[in-house]
Design brief:
The structure is a single chain. By secondary structure, the chain is an all-alpha fold. It has a domain at 572-625. 71% of the residues lie in helices and 1% in strands. It has 34 helices and two strands. The chain has helices spanning 15-21, 24-33, 47-53, 68-88, 97-106, 113-125, 129-142, 147-160, 164-176, 183-195, 199-212, 220-232, 236-249, 255-268, 271-283, 290-302, 306-318, 325-337, 341-350, 360-372, 376-388, 395-407, 411-423, 430-442, 446-458, 465-477, 481-493, 500-512, 516-529, 535-547, 551-564, 570-582, 586-598, 605-624, and strands at residues 40-43, 57-60. The termini are far apart.
Amino acid sequence: MSLLRKRLLIPTGSISKYIQSQSPKKLFAANCCGLSSHGFYISTKNHHQTRHNSNLSIEKSPSHPQHDHTVEGVCSAYRAFILNLLKRRHGFRVLLIKDLLNEIGKQGHSIGFGFAKRLIYHLERAKMLHKSLHVFSEVRKTYPKLNALLYNRLFDVFVKSGKINEALNLLHAMLEANYVPNKTVLSAVFFTLLKENRLQEAEMTIVHISEKCCESFPNVLQFTQFTNAMCKAGKADKAWEIVHLAKTKGISLSVAPFNVILNSLGHCGDFSRINLLFFEMEEMGIKSDIITCNSLLGAYCEWGYIDEALELLDRMRHGHCCPDRITFTTLIGGLCRVGRVDEALELVAKMSDANCTPDEVTFTTLIDGLCKVNRVDEAFQLVAKILHAHCSPNIITFTALINGFCKVGRVDEALRLVAKMRHANYDLDVVTYTTLIEGLCKLGRIDEALRFAAKMRYSSLSPDVIAYTTIIDGLCKVGRVNESLQVVASMKQDSCFPDAYIYTSLIDGFSKAGKINEAYSLFVKMMKMGPFPDSVTFHAIIYELWRFGRVDMVRKCFHKMEIVGITPEVESYQILIESFCNENKVQIAFSLLEEMIAKGLVPDVVTYNRVYNSLHKRLENANYN
């Protein structure tokens, strides 16, 4: 007899235990052949059709009457059978769960809330999310009062499976039905949205939950993460709005999100809103901390309000926020940026009064400030103080000092410092190499600059745009324009493409080498293939064409400037006016002079005199005739 037609007799009351104890293969045989002792069997016309199409149905056995307690037992058997298969991960393609659940419903019994939760859990583990949705939709019809628990069960399934879009849709459905989502799962969704930079959806989630629920969401940490993400994305306004929303909803806030917004407003220089933020912090009873004070002090220094920063430091000394090393280093950097280096030196001496010791960052900031005002020797002496303070100068420290030497033309001392750095096992970075290359090119020592560029490559470092621009400009200034084109080719090989400044240097170099045709060809190439020329490039080619007597080409370039919407500079107008005056086309020259003035460009005395003399000469010729 075929296994599928065989009837297995199972004692009443032992169905669930029997099913749970059997192997998947035997279970499938038993259930396919039928639970005949209870009046039911699973029938199929063809075993292969069942295997491939999952075309199962539930039918009554004609030989056995139906009893209520028997039906309940069979429903329990079905539930146990489904869970057993799911746990052992067998039979997914031969068992159509939907038909089994429907059959349980036909017998007047529900699948049960506890079973539904377990079933969704096992379906999620078996990666059958679409089945989880079906189970959820079936059970919600029978258990309307328990929907919140099932919502959270399925919500958890989606989050753990990375189905954030589905989780968000389910979240909105929960909120519309006035159900409160599980805080742990909700936090996971919120964190994922922030991680994936889906800030608008994170914002909508906060707003939606605050409108529908009285739960305190987000908490302080989540709120700080959100404001930080919004501010990093340049959306401080939105972060500001969410702060006010939290305030109106009575959400407890700490100083952390205010510090994030304050830092962002400081970078924007929005001091009016910074003052408002401090007012609201006081109103909410939130005290500023050292991070708050340092953020405000950094904003003052960034925007040049050094006196206000010094006043803040004085208030910090006498207030509840004791200044730390970051406070002093930030203010020292601000003083150095505006050239008040002596005050910065005094501030370093006062750090010990506040139980602070300068570190390598503090000394590097001061060295950079001294070098910018050409006090290189004092900067060099500070290196000894760094070592005395048991700090190790880093590559940034030495690069600042090298830049100072190169700036005052003491490149040989910079090279000696580089030799000492290498002896001490310091690895030069791109900025250090570029600084040296720029210093050498300024003195016309192009070959040495090229050797350092080669050393960069040998050290597995690729020159950046600044290094390439410096070398090309240096080659062009000494008339080695063909070599500059070779450098441009190398630049492109490094996926570092020349900009308008580099092309302008090339045009200027070819022109000064007497190769005006090559210079104009480069300009045409820029117009066709990019980078598009800017006003400086246009003026450079106009000037060189005028210098070579190509007046018609000058006028064409001037006309192209107007077509592409670039306003000609004063010098470009003066060249064109001069060309028309030389041809005795005084009326056109006078019109260009009026156009200059209308555009807010101020002609110099030479231009006025040139037009005046041309007009005067024309009048004299008219009177003579």
